[in-house]
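Structure in, sequence out. Go:
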């Protein structure tokens, strides 16, 4: 697509370059004269025809409401598999969920899941991991795509908790839903946080 511009009717349409606008028009018989064809370059008569005009709706009709979730795109970013990147993950997720009622919980859970990816998967051994934040209708879904590992992620029993191992316990208690897909060649750990 090229640049949008105002059409003769006052509505926006997909524009063509200005050089194409200045190209000679065909005469009344439907064929361009020889000087017109030469001025237009080596285009054949088939390619010198005007393309159909595609119109874009630029104004909403009265009563139309735009659902911001319907037009929201997921935020995606790749991080190096280092514990130093967890701070950058928090900043990335905070920007993606700015204004969301469950933003604090989502940021905390995203940092826990990414810490697990760095510590327990191949991503932390010189690899990378990807964080995807998907806004939905009263829900935020966060996915962490990592390099995978032999062991499956799971919540540890409370008596096994030492100075570490609380990450998925927090996810279990604060997230509406969570889960994982994949295995040793790559895994996605995801969670969703809803609000009313």
């Amino acid at each position: 697509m090229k640049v949008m511009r105002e059409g003769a009717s006052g509505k926006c349409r997909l524009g063509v370059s200005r050089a194409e606008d200045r190209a000679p028009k065909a005469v009344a018989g439907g064929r361009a004269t020889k000087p017109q064809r030469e001025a237009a370059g080596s285009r054949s008569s088939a390619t010198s025809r005007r393309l159909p005009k595609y119109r874009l709706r630029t104004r909403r009709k009265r009563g139309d409401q735009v659902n911001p979730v319907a037009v929201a795109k997921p935020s995606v970013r790749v991080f190096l598999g280092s514990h130093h990147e967890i701070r950058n993950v928090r900043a990335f997720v905070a920007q993606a969920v700015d204004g969301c009622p469950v933003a604090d919980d989502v940021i905390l859970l995203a940092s826990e899941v990414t810490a697990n990816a760095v510590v327990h998967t191949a991503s932390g051994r010189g690899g990378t991991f990807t964080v995807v934040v998907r806004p939905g209708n009263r829900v935020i879904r966060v996915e962490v795509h990592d390099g995978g590992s032999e062991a499956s992620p799971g919540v540890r029993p409370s008596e096994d908790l030492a100075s570490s191992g609380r990450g998925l316990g927090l996810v279990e208690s604060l997230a509406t839903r969570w889960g994982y897909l994949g295995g040793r060649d790559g895994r996605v750990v995801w969670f969703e946080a809803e609000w009313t």
